[in-house]
Structure prediction request, 996 residues.
Amino acid sequence: MSLGTDVVGPSGPLLGEPAAPPPDSVSPVLRRRSPFMLGLRRYLHNWLAVAGAIVLLAFLVTVFILPLFMHLDPYAVDLTHSRQPPGPGHLLGTDGTGRDVFARLVYGGRVSMGVGLAAAGVAILLGSLLGAIAGAFGGWLDTVIMRAADIFLSFPSTVVVIVLAGVFGPSVLMLIVALGVFEWPKSGRVVRSVVVAMREREFVQAARAVGAGRGWLISRHLLPAALSQIVVIFTLTVANCILQEAALSFLGLGVQPPTPSWGNMLTDAQSITVINSMPWLWVPPGVAVALMVLCVNFVGDGLRDAVDPRQR
Amino acid sequence: MTLLEVRDLVKHFPIRKGVFRHVGSVVRAVDGVSFDLDRGETLGLVGESGCGKSSTGKLLMRLEQPTSGAIRYDGADLSALTGSASKAFARNIQIVFQDPYASLSPRMTVHDIVAEPLRVQKIYASTGAAKVSAALESVGLTQQHASRYAHEFSGGQRQRIGIARALVLDPTVLVLDEPVSALDVSIRAQVINTLEELQDDLGLAYLFISHDLSVVRYTCDRVAVMYLGKIVETGTRSQIFDAPTHPYTQALLSAIPSPDVIDDDDGGARRERIVLRGDVPSPSNPPSGCRFRTRCWKAQDICAAEEPPLVGQGADDHLVACHFPQAIDVLGGEPIGEYSEAE
Amino acid sequence: MTQPLLDVRDLAVQFKTLDGLVHAVDGVSFTVAKGEILGVVGESGSGKSVSAMSMLGLIPQPPGRIAAGSVLFEGTDLLRASKRRMRQIRGEQIGMIFQDPMTALNPVMRVGKQIAEAIRTHHRRTSADAALERAVELLRLVGVPQPEARVQQYPHQFSGGMRQRAMIAMAIANDPSLLIADEPTTALDVTIQAQVLDMLRRAQAETGAATIFITHDLGVVAELAERVIVMYAGRIMESGAVRTIFANPRHPYTVGLLKSLPSLKRDSQILTPIPGNPPNLLQPIQGCPFQPRCEIGRDREVCSTTRPPLADVAPGHASACHFSDELGSAAPAAASTGVTS
Prediction:
């Protein structure tokens, strides 16, 4: 004998409809709004996230598209014009061996961002798969995977990468794999917890009730449910990986010259003279790394708020 | 004819404690439940939270594995089914869940939600789309609705989508787990009527799980009352509502507030109030003997010593598990005499 | 006529959302007399909870906004009172009981201490011991067994029904003259609900507090309240004495509700649902909000253009319907069960 406990939400027929109202009609306001569109709308309301996305996009365009239109050679050595301040022919001056700083900044961006994206990609792929399996299967598989994650998390990753660099020789590939392998636990844990939460939800039970096996549940329901979280973690992992690459290359253990990267461009800044009197050598890559990481973080935060399930 | 036979169904959930998660105690969610469900009939399974009615529904759906006991469908034991036979069996019994907001995937269109059972069973190919349309139509939704997402619909509409999904595999039995409890009342009647029509059209058998006895009275032919994992009384609708015999059934009927005030003016006195003492005991530690004895105003020593069996009272189809059964027309306002309120 | 304890006039509350402005409460007026139990009944979206919350200043503003109206309580307009005055009133002169006791009770504080705190916030000079003693007394009053032991326990050690009783104890601790209960028994099992309602009745009788009981459960209102107001889409559709309203409803919405409810006491032949869905509160509604679903108003122009005023159809019985005289026992009632014998 009670009236119901629905949550408040706009719905209902259009007013002024013909005499016999159809028993069901869809709310006009919410028409044509897929979950993606709803999330996008929320994202666009966050100006910081939008600004971050715009700057990020600008960077990506500059770094990948600009060289197609401008002649930039990051490898051209010219010892007669080393350590020149910005001037004609060299937008940002030249470095210790006379290479154009601007060119190195642009190409270095490709490397730094490339490594960041690739390493994050490896981490997310590994993490999502392992997390989904752990969450969906439970039992000893869950325990094994989660303890493995704990072990990876408790390693001082930078130290280990340094050791690996020493053993295998530093290279971009090793960097990507090593960073990826240490970043997987974060996404792994998040995916697992989403899967565990979703596992008992009634729409997943409904799929089980019609005979769906674990594979179907994971691929059709559980992973998609975690997708929004995965995207957020991905962006934040990219930021982290860019930072780590910069640090390792700065120490000489990441990307090796002559291949430019923002990190190894900063290696030059190890002398006080350079810091004091040759800002064009270290300010551009420093600012680039900081700005890039900042933007990616804003985007990641914006995404996290936009996909927050509590706002549904 | 009897479609489903449930015999001594038991489900214990282990409570794991400690770092190594060893089993501490068990929650006796369902503790020896037996009933039959005939083709085309509606059996109501009622009780308050923790009585095991939802768990029983899940066991029937094989979303949970029984600890012991048997479920037979059309004579065949369900636990004997494995692999592809087990998967194919899903077509016979389907379920409608309580929460219209959690039972539909937020990422799928209505069409995909209703089509999923067909796709899982790999029978979508040629006739799938038509079956989905037919299922949606049968619950009063149209093609226009099929391309929308679940969140664009109201609670009542979502529940109907859930019903369409349950019907698309042409089952013979539907387990309805509190199908209207989460809906606004002006919508409930719509969904209840839809369910009634579907039952008439398709000859479905319903297991109607609910705590709302007014709805149960309207929809069910027979009713089984559960308490702490056991059935305490079973009977036809008129037996249960007009002549409840187990004290818990009587207390339940007496406790439900109702706006039927007109009748009270006629008889003068409002119906007799039975207000039970105390709270429901924990299902991991149920009382010995009769589980209801801790709140029962009639309890005697024998109630603690011996568990009363579920046996017929007069009529063979009216079963009660009580050492001191007495039929009382609680709703009609009959005074209870010496067994008056326990507060 | 004596001054009513609470006098709500033309209350209007709106919420700013991404989709637009939601008119959650749209011109609600009612009174509560001293010691009376008023039931507020409505489905989700009817505005019943929002009305109560806004009276106590518990609506976050933004996104909420009290667009109009006044709420006179013992001479003070609650909507215009200072925050300090509201803090004084809340918990002392007005007690609140919410639906979910777990959100109202602090899970890491002992129950007795919480009740004692409620007392000492308003009566600074009470000693901790005296307050605790009173807490034990209160728990006994609300029917919690072994209150001396229970007072030292944490909320999670209480069952659902007991937690609700503890919350009621907290609400009546300072002898408020008004209690506002927002769906206090909705989450409880039927037999526990019966216990709690019984206890509420007794507590109310002993303390003489007026009570506003908000619920979606028509049965609970019928058993507990003396007067009832029926809300829909942020407005009052009908108000009057409980028995009158249920025996002789004079608004199509109330009639529709009662006709669509299956009866507990009798085998119903047919349920007549109310067609359609509740209206979209994003659009301000010009006429009657129930019109699209209304049997008698669907085709009538006045129902879509003019808002029906809440007018008396009998002494103490008001209905917001242009055609309320077509309803009621004098009028040809539709064949139904549960309303007429």
